[in-house]
Amino acid sequence: MNRQTSGDYPLRYLYMTASSEARQALEQVGVAPYGIEAMEPKMHHRTILIEGISCPMANILKQEMLSLGGDVAVARGAVACSIPQTDAIIMGTHKQVLRLAEKIMDQPFGLNRIGQRLKDLLDNLSRETWLLKTSRREMVLGERTLIMGILNVTPDSFSDGGCFESPGKAIDQGLRMWDEGADIIDIGGESSRPGAKPVTDEEELSRVVPVIEALAAKISAPLSVDTTKAVVARTAIGAGAEIVNDITAMTGDDGMEDIVASMGAAVVLMHMRGRPPDMQDGDLTYRSVHGDIINFLVQRMEAACRAGVRNDSIMVDPGIGFGKTGADNLKLLNHLAEFKSLGRPIVTGASRKSFIGAITGGEPHQRLEGSAAAATAAIMQGSQIVRVHDVPFMKKVAAMADAILRA
Questions:
Q1: Cα–Cα 20 to 30 A to 305, which of 298, 315, 316, 380?
Q2: How far apart are CA 352 and CA 371, in angstroms?
Q3: 159-167 contacts: CB < 8 A, separation 24 or more?
């Protein structure tokens, strides 16, 4: 085994997690300011998959990227155009990919659209803070992880069903979470656990509206309503909620997009395959769990913006536990950084879920350690908001993860 000795010139791999780290390393070497501006993009490597492009497009991308010192991987047969299309993997530094995007802006075959999308993607990957507009305020996300406290006003939620079923108990719990440091309180009146039965509009309204009205009058934290129903969202926003957390990404009710847009609320678009009564039944196989979910969220973001929802009012949630296997949930947490490509804040909710119990054992309320590990992984991978049951404990977990991440 070769070892460095005191007479060697020590070598060290520099692992960069942010632009600020790259700039600091260059400053420590003594690089001039203009040099830092030129070199910092070269210290970030990007690997980008483009699916289903024509062979002529792929060949132009490969030639251009090779000329810049990077590369593009394509399928066998793409060079000779003996296949109809190919996926392509672009490999290079941030600066090389940016130059590629600029070079293909005037190319044929639709490459100009790919160029613009590459530039947008690079901007999203480099972003460290996000503006979020709700119906009542503007918030800057990314400076620290926000804690979204879960307040289920239901008799049948998987973890705390029945604990806060009465309005009085729910209001007390909301005030307690506020005192414990919750940044957002998410109030739900219909269980979304696997196999849960839907409730009527009237029942859901009777559960959440009194709680929202009371909390809005007593605390300054943003209130979120966890609902898939437009009538519930409209009434809840009128009562004081300013965020709609919709597990169907506004596909469950045709009127939801109009309500969110017209009332200026922020919205969490979450991925779920199926609906709670059947989402864990049947074949849960994905072609690519990350790719399929990202593509779905792109489509839902575009649909929301067409309906008049502001882009800076949108958050995204990969839907941990909603129509996924335990292995899928772990993969999503391990590669959550891929969702940064969407350019919007990431909300992650893994608290007490069954895939944690499958690993650590225990009933939902006994999964605190596993929930803490999942939240830490999400934060380290770029989640700006973690949705949790145990607010004071997770507040400390997030503070420690933030300190490590921003060291």
A1: 380
A2: 6
A3: 159/351, 159/352, 159/364, 159/365, 159/389, 160/364, 160/365, 160/389, 161/191, 165/207, 167/207, 167/210, 167/211, 167/214
Report the C-alpha gap between 116 and 303 in whole angstroms.
20
Task: Annotate 322-350 with b (16+ C-beta within 10 A) or e (fewer).
Answer: bbbeeebbbbbbeebebbbbbbbbbbbbb
Q: Which amino acid is at 49?
A: L
- In this structure, the number of other CB atoms found within 10 A of the CB of residue 151 comes to 29
DSSP 8-state secondary structure symbol assigned to residue 346: B
Q: Which amino acid is at 198?
A: P
Structure tokens at 310: 């502001």
- Residues 207 and 203: their CA atoms lie apart, in Å, by 6
Query: Could you report the average pLDDT of every consecutive run of 10 residues in the chain (407 residues)?
Result: 60 73 86 87 87 93 95 91 92 94 90 94 93 97 97 71 74 96 96 81 95 97 97 98 98 97 98 80 84 94 98 98 94 94 97 95 94 98 97 98 93
Which has the closest alpha carbon to 50: 16, 99, 101? 101
Per DSSP, helices labelled H in 240-367 are 256-263, 289-306, 326-334, 354-360
- Burial label, 42 (beta-carbon count in 10 A; 0-12, 13-18, 19+): middle
Tell me the C-alpha distance between 186 and 243, whole Å. 9
Q: How far apart are CA 229 and CA 257, in angstroms?
A: 11
Strands 266-270 and 45-54, bridge-based pairing: unpaired
- Can you tell me which residue has the tokens 């990957």? 125
pTM for the model: 0.89
Element (H, E) at 170: helix 167-180
Instruction: Show which residues are catalytic.
Output: 353, 387
Q: Which of 193, 190, 298 is CA-nearest to residue 253?
A: 190
Contacts of 244 (CB under 8 A, 6+ apart): 224, 225, 227, 233, 236, 237, 256, 259, 260, 265, 266, 267, 268
Strand partners, 346: 316
Q: How far apart are CA 251 and CA 217, in angstroms?
A: 31
Q: Is 16 exposed, middle or buried (0-12, 13-18, 19+ CB in 10 A)?
A: middle
Coil, helix or strand for 175?
A: helix
